[in-house]
Design brief:
- By secondary structure, the chain is of the alpha/beta class.
- It has nine helices and 22 strands.
- The longest helix has 13 residues.
- The radius of gyration is 21 Å and the shape is globular.
- The model has no long low-confidence stretch (mean pLDDT 95).
């Protein structure tokens, strides 16, 4: 069963702002049921619809729009990280924005930064992107792939996002396999990928989808955009996080010598480019293991740096005499 826009004049049921797995589900299903909902925004895009000939049953849904997901207000840490990333974004950059307050805070800062002619090629459409578009900062004028278009594969946010995207010729919602592949992402110049993570080790592995054996998120397109942005001409990939977190009243470092047992590695150490916390930004590309360890320690919370260095030297990540 798939929720869609009402059938259009050509006999197609549009998937709205959700071209993630709908086609894959439909192609595997023995019976396809469509729930029509007049409140959904309609977006053009490749593989973002199914024809009536592919549908077995149709039922009437509500006229309510998609669920609104409020954006949490950015914290001071979010703003500090966003400031560091925003300073690296040039005119004509093509943005991919991941989920979370921290990447979205970058969009807020870009509104008044003076940067112009940004493009969008992203898995997730966010309210921050909509704000940039409505302010005229996003034009897509310098994009090589789909110039002038905001390209995404799904959207989550508030009503303004859905109303802005509805039947807007500046927006395209393509199937996920037509958006996320690194060889597609890299076709635009100056791609900037901005994504969150929950924990990183000193060699640069990013664990973004689990807390030990407890799953907290899907893999998503993070690793694909990390690779695609780096392969893009003039591209940059940013993995961002707060330096610490608190659980049950105890504060811990997100930068660790060894990942929590059971943690899933989302982006490998060889793919990581820039890493950002509120304490700074480092580029791990081309660095040796000792250089990576020192760089990661430099952006950890000051309260944990000495302990991290002791552990790193004890494990041989930083050899004796290496400064």
């Amino acid at each position: 069963m798939i929720k869609t826009c009402p059938k259009d004049e050509r006999g197609f049921y549009n998937f709205s702002l959700a071209a993630l797995w709908e086609r894959a589900i439909m192609e595997r299903a023995k019976i396809v049921v469509v729930e029509e909902s007049a409140g959904l925004p309609y977006l053009d895009g490749l593989e973002n619809a199914m024809h009536e000939s592919e549908v077995d049953y149709v039922i009437d849904g509500s006229d309510d729009g998609p669920t609104e997901i409020p954006n949490p207000p950015p914290t001071e840490i979010d703003r500090a990280v966003a400031n560091l990333i925003a300073a690296e974004i040039e005119d004509g950059s093509c943005l991919q924005i991941g989920i979370g307050a921290m990447p979205n805070a970058v969009c807020s800062l870009l509104l008044d930064s003076g940067v112009r002619d940004l493009g969008i090629h992203t898995e997730m459409l966010t309210d921050g992107i909509i704000d940039l578009y409505r302010a005229g900062v996003v034009t897509g004028a310098r994009k090589k792939l789909y110039p002038g278009k905001i390209v995404c594969t799904f959207g989550l946010g508030m009503k303004t996002q859905y109303e802005t995207a509805h039947r807007n010729p500046d927006f395209l919602c393509h199937a996920v396999d037509l958006i996320n592949q690194p060889d597609i992402v890299m076709q635009n110049d100056r791609v900037v990928a901005i994504n969150n993570t929950t924990q990183m080790d000193l060699q640069g592995q990013a664990a973004s989808e689990s807390a030990g054996h407890r799953h907290i998120s899907g893999t998503g397109g993070q690793s694909q955009f990390v690779r695609g942005a780096y392969a893009s001409r003039g591209g940059k990939s940013f993995i961002c996080m707060s330096s610490t977190y608190e659980r049950r009243g105890l504060r811990a470092s997100r930068i660790v010598v060894d990942l929590t047992p059971g943690n899933v590695v989302t982006a490998t150490r060889s793919d990581i480019m820039y890493v950002v916390t509120e304490y700074g930004i480092v580029n791990l590309k081309g660095k040796s293991v000792p250089e990576r360890a020192k760089a990661m320690i430099s952006i950890a919370h000051p309260d944990f740096r000495d302990e991290l260095e002791r552990e790193a030297r004890g494990h041989g990540l930083i050899p004796k005499g290496f400064v």
